[in-house]
Design brief:
240 residues, 3 helices
Length: 240
């Protein structure tokens, strides 16, 4: 479908573009809120700032698309291919991205608050300052991703792979890292201590050494070592 054909259909009120070929089109000036784009080919399309909230984009292709400042709140992109796309400052709270692929994509400053990201691949992605707070990232792939200063607070990261990820300043407060893979990452012990759980997680040897020696489990209230239980200080009796 070329630009003229799309514009004609859109102006006539059409919002069902299921499996349509819209690759390379400039869609920056249209409102696609709630549109049906299941299985559509949007590779290389320009969608900067477009309202795609609650849109149906399951199994769609958005590889190398321009999606800066796009609104995808509540949209369904399950199984979508969004590799090497630009999603800087995207508004994606409540989005469904389970089984989607976003390898090498830039989601810097994007907001994915409380989103469904089961087995989503962000491999080698740029996720600087990205908000994931409260999201489900079970078995997600964040291998080699740049998560500097990202917010993973209260996230479910069970069995997730963060191998080789840049975790400088990343927030892990109250998240679940049970069984997560963190080897070759630069995670710090204080970040682990803020997590709700990290049983059976794999992390760098120096972190294991600090935990085994009890040098990093210190109570924030009295600064005494708290090695009997991670979140309870036997010295002052306070939980943390």
């Amino acid at each position: 479908m070329n630009q003229i054909e799309f514009n004609k259909l859109f102006d006539s009120g059409e919002r069902d573009f299921k499996e349509a070929n819209l690759s390379g089109l400039d869609l920056c000036k249209v409102n696609l809120k709630g549109a049906i784009l299941t299985g559509a080919n949007l590779e290389g399309s320009k969608l900067r700032g477009v309202d795609l909230s609650n849109a149906k984009l399951r199994d769609s292709c958005l590889n190398r698309a321009e999606l800066q400042n796009v609104i995808l709140e509540g949209a369904n992109l399950q199984g979508a291919m969004i590799n090497y796309a630009n999603l800087q400052n995207a508004h994606m709270s409540g989005v469904v991205l389970s089984y989607a692929y976003l390898k090498g994509s830039d989601l810097s400053d994007a907001d994915l608050y409380k989103s469904s990201l089961y087995r989503t691949s962000f491999e080698d992605g740029k996720l600087v300052n990205t908000i994931f707070y409260g999201s489900k990232l079970i078995e997600s792939i964040l291998t080699g991703a740049d998560l500097a200063h990202a917010d993973l607070g209260a996230c479910d990261l069970r069995e997730a792979s963060l191998v080789g990820a840049n975790l400088t300043g990343t927030n892990f407060t109250d998240c679940d890292l049970t069984g997560a893979w963190l080897i070759r990452s630069n995670i710090k012990t204080y970040q682990l201590l803020s997590a709700r759980a990290f049983d059976n997680a794999s992390f760098p040897k120096e972190i294991y050494d600090e935990i085994r020696n009890g040098t990093s489990f210190r109570c924030p209230h009295c600064n005494e070592k708290a090695i009997e239980q991670k979140h309870y200080c036997w010295n002052c009796g306070k939980s943390f």
